[in-house]
Amino acid sequence: MQNLNEWQVDQDYVAIVGDLLQREEVQKLENYPQHHFSNRLEHSISVSYQSYLIAKKVGADEVATARAGLLHDLFYYDWRTTKFDEGTHAYVHPRIALKNARKITHISPKEADIIVKHMFGATIAPPKYVESWIVSLVDDYAAVNEYLLPQMYVSYFKWQMKVATRFTNFRLKIQ
Ligand SMILES: [Fe+2]
Ligand SMILES: [Fe+2]
After folding, report:
1. Which residues form the HD domain (predicted)?
2. Who contacts 163 (Cβ-Cβ below 8 Å, separation ≥6)?
3. What's the pLDDT score for residue 143?
4. Segments in the chain forming alpha helices (H)
5. What is the pLDDT of residues 14-25, one digit of tens each?
6. C-alpha 99 to ligand 1 mean position (Å)
7. In this structure, which long-range contacts are made by residues 166-172, counting pairs with CB atoms below 8 Å and at least 24 apart in sequence?
8. How far is the CA of 115 from the centre of ligand 2 (A)?
């Protein structure tokens, strides 16, 4: 994201996620480092807002994208030090996030798919909706953006979006 606070002046976006942002369960994500240069709240807003902009641009469901994007990493442990018997962090944390998200708001089947499939690539089940593809790809991009300079990744992102259209039969207008 070019400007971390860009979303704050986008009233349409704030109207969609404002109730979630006021929740303590979301705000406390600020206490967890995510990648090298960001905490989990900054990361979640960044993924949500960038995904929302793309969803709007391509005519997808920007409300589900923004809300589920914001909640996609709603978990409260340090992934670098916590291990699970049930599986890898990549497999476990989307399920924990969905469970936590359901405690604070209604989650539609599409929003559930967005949250649970956001690690596609590291996990096997492919996204069912174009909105899930968008969040998954933006999350990949964010991981690099928050860690390294992203220039090379932009080309990769565009290529991945083209791959996504084959799975979803959804025509994206990204050039
Ligand atoms: Fe995640
Ligand atoms: Fe993430």
Report:
1. 40-144
2. none
3. 73
4. 11-21, 24-27, 40-58, 62-71, 89-104, 109-116, 130-145, 151-168
5. 999 999 999 999
6. 14
7. 167/126, 167/127, 167/133, 168/127, 168/129, 168/130, 168/133, 170/58, 170/60, 170/130, 172/58, 172/130
8. 10
Is residue 43 a contact partner of residue 34, using CB atoms and an 8 Å limit?
yes
- Residues with Cβ–ion distance below 5 A, ligand 1: 73
78-117 pLDDT per residue, tens: 888 888 888 899 999 999 999 999 999 999 999 999 999 9
Q: What is the DSSP letter of 169?
A: T
pLDDT at position 11 over 90: yes
> What's the average model confidence in pLDDT over 122-151?
82
pLDDT confidence band for 9 (50 / 70 / 90): very high
| Calpha distance 145→19 (Å, rounded) | 27
Residue 70 CA, ligand 2 centroid: distance in Å = 9
**The residue type at 142:** A
Measured distance CA(119)–CA(96) in Å, rounded? 13
What domains appear along the chain, each with residue ranges and CATH number? 6-168 (1.10.3210)
Stated pTM of the model = 0.83
